[in-house]
Specification:
The mean pLDDT is 96. The protein is an alpha+beta fold and 493 residues long. The chain contains 14 helices and 13 strands. The longest helix is centred in the last third of the chain and has 30 residues. The radius of gyration is 23 Å and the shape is globular. Bound molecules: adenosine monophosphate and magnesium ion (MG). Magnesium ion (MG) binds next to loops.
Length: 493
């Protein structure tokens, strides 16, 4: 077994280090994945593997299935389940990896460090009443949407493989079991800080914060107050991230503090989805009864989550509690402005503006109001401004739109950049293709219910070049017809 693994390491290119497993014992539990019955490869991400210095091409299908099910671990992996807590829909809970295992960190030939994590790999001490397993469709859903986010240029964890287990998992109905291999800058979450703060107090938080600074933000090591700077940089990353989500119409769906990564990557794709017709109240998640995590609330929730992060850092921010609170509050308050700046900058690009005018926010708001009023497709309406196509909607014929269009054209003519340059800028910032929910669902149904992966692979191809105008993918640009609309998504736990 060991020689096989050593051989695999040499051929595949694994280079494991386990820095998280060197942290104090209370941060995790060492644990092996529970072997699965008959693993089979559903999908492998060769492009991602290659970018990490891994060559999966040397593996037989069987060997790949053994590897990515956890039945045969790469040499050097020291599997652990990470401990964390989280505010779920506003309520504090102790959690931890209940169905995931961190194999360790793969260090690429360039020296980049990535967590390699299995999701659906069996029970752990954190499983509570769960079975530790995952169903095929939700794992493929994470694969599709995380890869789409990557292609859109949005920070995200990625998906290296999905294998089926040959076992049945029981949800509302019996489903095929699967394991997803997730690649992340790290899995340290706001919830990790909350857990350590409860369990270990200020000393533990300091250990975790130092770890995070060394791993993600080494430029802060020499800062006068590195912990305040850590808070500031995480605020900045999250403000940027959530602005990106809004700009492409993404709704995360479960922005609990355990699903917010300190690295600033989008993490934990559950009931997430992209909005078709523009409506800030849009929610897909079947359990988000009060629209807490709706499209338009996401920046407020990010700020709320960051306040929970700041609370854990208080003892490190200043020796005097009053001063510490003052520093934290002012950092958290800065979120709104930072977020607004990122969002405005992104919106200006979407409308082809190179310069800044004070009237821009009015122009942007007025366009969004028109989209909302006419229930126009968010993605296609922006893209149609660029390529002068007519979306399937009456918006572009409406007199109020014509009036807006004139103001917009006048605005464009007040900048020295050419119309062509503006149009190129817009094309690079308004995707033509997003993972529309009805397309995602039909790909998942074909794969998980009929074993037909052609629909899914074709969708992945289309999503890989979201800003291009490739006629063969025109069909993917269509919003759902009334009967195709999928309004509800599930976390699949
Ligand atoms: P999530 O909603 O995916 O962020 O998960 C929230 C928590 O529930 C995490 O601690 C998960 O590990 C845990 N969890 C979700 N599904 C399962 C499952 N099937 N078995 C055990 N734990 C689970
Ligand atoms: Mg989670």
């Amino acid at each position: 077994m060991k020689t096989d693994a050593a051989l695999d390491n040499a051929c595949i290119g694994w280079r494991f280090d386990n820095s998280y497993a060197r942290l104090p014992e209370s941060f995790y539990v060492p644990i092996q994945p529970v072997p699965v019955q008959t693993p089979e490869v559903a999908i492998l991400n060769h492009a991602l593997a290659e970018s990490m210095g891994l060559n999966l091409g040397v593996l037989s299908e069987d060997a790949a299935a053994m590897l990515f099910s956890g039945n045969a671990l790469p040499e050097g992996a020291e599997p652990i389940a990470q401990a964390y807590a989280g505010h779920q829909f506003g309520n504090f809970t102790m959690l931890g990896d209940g169905r995931a295992i961190l194999l360790g960190e793969h260090v690429t030939p360039n020296g980049d460090r990535f967590d390699i994590q299995f999701k659906g790999s069996g029970r752990t001490p954190f499983s509570r009443r769960g079975d530790g397993r995952a169903a095929l469709a939700p794992m493929l859903r994470e694969y599709i949407i995380s890869e789409a986010m990557y292609a859109l240029g949005i920070p995200t964890t990625r998906s290296l493989a999905v294998v089926t287990t040959g076992e049945t998992v029981l949800r509302e109905t019996p489903l095929h079991g699967a394991v997803l291999t997730r690649v992340a800058a790290s899995h340290v979450r706001v919830g990790t800080f909350e857990y350590i703060a409860r369990k270990e107090g200020a000393e533990g938080v300091k250990t975790l914060a130092d770890y995070v600074i060394h791993r993600h933000y080494p430029e802060l090591i020499e800062a006068e107050n590195p912990y305040l700077e850590l808070l500031n940089v995480v605020i900045k990353r999250q403000a940027s991230l959530v602005s990106h989500w809004l700009l492409v119409g993404f709704i995360h769906g479960v922005m609990n503090t355990d699903n917010m990564a300190i690295s600033g990557e989008t993490i934990d794709y559950g009931p997430c989805a992209f909005m078709d017709a523009f409506d800030p109240q849009t929610v897909f998640s079947s359990i988000d009864y009060h629209r807490r995590y709706c499209y338009g609330n996401q920046s407020h929730i990010a700020q709320w989550n960051l306040a929970r992060f700041a609370e854990t850092l208080l003892p490190l921010l200043h020796a005097e509690q009053g001063k510490a609170i003052e520093l934290a509050e002012s950092a958290i308050q800065s979120f709104s402005r930072i977020f607004q700046d990122y969002w405005m900058a992104g919106m200006r690009k979407k409308l082809g503006f190179f310069t800044e005018e004070t009237e821009d926010s009015r122009l942007i708001e007025d366009f969004l109001t028109l989209l909302h009023k006419h229930q126009a497709d968010y993605t296609n309406s922006f893209r149609a401004l660029t390529d002068q196509s007519q979306p399937d909607n009456d918006l572009f014929q409406a007199p109020e739109f014509m009036a807006w269009h004139t103001r917009w054209q006048e605005r464009l003519s007040r900048q020295s950049e050419s119309k062509q340059a503006a149009s190129d800028l817009m094309r690079a910032n308004n995707p033509a293709i997003i993972p529309r929910n009805h397309r995602v669902e039909s790909a998942l149904t074909a794969a998980a219910e009929q074993g037909d992966y052609a629909v899914l692979k074709q969708l992945l191809n289309a999503l890989a070049e979201p800003y291009a105008d490739l006629p063969q993918y025109d069909d993917y640009r269509k919003p759902p017809a009334a009967h195709e609309r999928v309004c509800e998504t599930f976390c699949g736990t």
